[in-house]
Amino acid sequence: MYDRATRERALALVAQSRSLNSVSKQTGISRHAIRSWQHRIQPISRAAACTRCEREPRPPDATEPYAYLLGLYLGDGCISRQPRGGYALRIACADAWPGLIAACREAVRAVRPMNSVCVAQKEGCVMVTSYSRHWPCLFPQHGPGKKHERRIVLEAWQQQIVDDHPWEFLRGLIHSDGCRMTNWTTRVVGGERKRYEYPRYFFTNMSTDIIRLYTETLDKVGVAWKPTRQCRKAENISVARKASVALMDQHIGPKY
User: Fold this and answer.
1) pLDDT of residue 47
2) Are residues 68 and 30 in the same domain?
3) Residues above pLDDT 90, as percent of the chain
4) Model confidence, pTM
5) Which residues pair with 90 in a beta bridge?
6) How many CB atoms lie within 10 A of CB 18?
7) Of 84, 102, 204, 226, which residue is most buried, by most CB within 10 angstroms?
8) Structural domains in the chain (count)
9) What pLDDT does 41 receive?
10) Is 191 part of any domain?
11) Residue 192 confidence (pLDDT)
């Protein structure tokens, strides 16, 4: 009735010290079936459940969602150690953008399908949260202190994913620390003052390393950018040229 991949996914959840009852509720598979698989299928170790912990480490299987999630993590994400072991990945998403919250949850599920995803309501935002022992494996940029106070460098396998899916990476960064907005100005034409509106993208971050990752990726996809005035020690990157904004609209668009 169930293929091997489904059975292995259920056993991977059990291997994380989850109860049969909780795994059954999450997967919709009866406890009796899961219990019988434990005797017929070799249990999956916690290390084998993570592509980075295998004998020969490799990138995560869902590379496109990972590129998006990496952008979200670098912008508004954090990883924290839990009292009973393991780690929590938390991505802050504003209440104003329900589509962003849904996209974030989908990306987390795609990257770690064996782990559940929950949402904790905070003032003005929600924290999309998932628990796993392997989040530091997937995001080696994790470390003590604030991101802008330490070095942020992608590992070779992460850079390859960004090179393969640059727009997903940029979308994650924009969805976290960026925005699409409409500016306006006035000009006198034929003796009459007229108002003109034009869209542009902004990205703001205090980490020079994350700014560099953003602008280098923009260069690779052919988007023209320029720095604007700094605010509170954060650097702002503007994309305002018509052709570049159109390109960003085609692949990213406004938050929703």
Assistant:
1) 46
2) no
3) 58
4) 0.78
5) 78, 129
6) 17
7) 204
8) 2
9) 54
10) no
11) 80
Confirm if 171 and 256 have CB atoms less than 8 A apart. Answer: no
CB–CB of 239/166 below 8 Å?
no
Domain span at 72: 63-146
For residue 196, what are its two tokens? Answer: 């003109």
pLDDT at 48 (0 to 100): 44
**Residues in contact with 237: Cβ distance below 8 Å, sequence separation at least 6, in sequence order:** 202, 203, 204, 211, 214, 215, 218, 225, 226, 227, 228
Nearest to 11 by CA among 25, 36, 88: 36
Nearest CA to 216 out of 179, 152, 163, 165 is that of: 163
Same domain? For 36 and 111 the reply is no
Is the domain of 14 the same as that of 67? no
Structure tokens at 213: 């990752």
Domain final residue pick, 103, 124, 146? 146
Phi and psi torsions of 7, nearest 5°: -65, -40
Last residue of a domain, one of 105, 120, 146: 146
Please give the distance of CA 160 from its chain centroid, rounded to a whole number: 16
| Residue whose C-alpha is closest to residue 213's, from 155, 135, 253, 252 | 155
Ranges of the chain with pLDDT below 70: 1, 5, 16-17, 39-48, 230-232
In contact, 104 and 93? CB cutoff 8 Å: yes
Q: Give per-residue pLDDT as tens, 63-90.
A: 999 999 999 999 999 999 988 778 999 9
Amino acid, single-letter form, for residue 3? D
Q: Give me 163's structure tokens.
A: 């090179």
DSSP per-residue string spanning 68-79: HHHHHHHHHEEE
CB 77 within 8 A of CB 89: yes
Phi, psi of 221 (to 5 degrees): -100, 5
Asked whether residue 250 is assigned to any structural domain, the reply reads no
